[in-house]
Automatic annotation (TrEMBL):
This is Uncharacterized protein. It comes from Bradyrhizobium shewense. It comes from the Bacteria.
Length: 39
């Protein structure tokens, strides 16, 4: 998950909003998946 966070930061730096949007969706999906496993 950390690599995806770093990638999102880099994507935002270069200004690709569409790619940043997709990276945020992927990150949120991973976070939800992790939360389901801890419950």
């Amino acid at each position: 998950m950390q690599y995806l966070t770093w990638a999102l930061e880099k994507i935002e730096t270069v200004g690709n909003q569409k790619a940043a949007h997709h990276a945020r969706i992927a990150l949120e999906a991973l976070r939800k998946g992790s939360a389901d496993k801890t419950e």
